From TrEMBL:
Protein name as catalogued: Metallo-beta-lactamase protein
PANTHER family: DIFLAVIN FLAVOPROTEIN A 2-RELATED
Keyword Coiled coil belongs to the record: no
Species this chain originates from: human gut metagenome
InterPro entries registered for this protein in UniProt: NADH_oxidoreductase_modular, RibonucZ/Hydroxyglut_hydro
Record key words, sorted: Electron transport, Transport
SUPFAM superfamilies registered for this protein in UniProt: Metallo-hydrolase/oxidoreductase
Length: 70
C-alpha cells in the first residue's frame, strides 16, 4: 500500500478540520518533542504511527500545515 496515497488526504482533512486553528500551539508542541525518541504516536482515533518513517512523515506534515504556508 502506498503510504502517502492511503493516509495523506485523510490526515490533512483531520488536521484542517480539527487541529488547524491551533497552528501556533502545534508548532510549540512539535518543538518540545523534537529531541525525543518517539516510538509510536497513538491518537484517540485515527491511525497509529508506528515506524520511524511514518512518525517523521506526519510530524513534518503537521509542522508544515501549522505554518500556514503553501
Amino acid at each position: 500500500t502506498d503510504f502517502v496515497a492511503t493516509y495523506e488526504e485523510e490526515a490533512r482533512r483531520y488536521y484542517t478540520n480539527i487541529v488547524g486553528k491551533y497552528g501556533p500551539q502545534v508548532q510549540n508542541a512539535l518543538r518540545k518533542i523534537s529531541s525525543l525518541d518517539i516510538k509510536r504516536i497513538a491518537p484517540l482515533h485515527g491511525p497509529i504511527w508506528r515506524t520511524p518513517e511514518s512518525i517523521q512523515y506526519i510530524t513534518h506534515k503537521y509542522l508544515h500545515w501549522s505554518s500556514y504556508t503553501a
